[in-house]
Amino acid sequence: QIKSGSAYTYAALFAADAVTISGAHNGYRYTGQSGRWIENRFCPACGVAMFFYSEGLPGTIGIAAGCFADDAG
Question: To pair with 36 at 20 to 30 A between CA atoms, which of 46, 52, 55, 56?
């Protein structure tokens, strides 16, 4: 399952209960080669991957590092 168009992605990991998600997002869940699921969440308007949950990282949310970019520049 490719979500970045590259061989890798960068994500910041946080405790899921320390993060508040707002706004619209869609998602899909798939099972990786390890047999564990990964749930990717993305913007329904443009399709950009925003964050994910993983069975292998319980209680954790991964947020795409690009979501922290300063768009004012």
Answer: 46
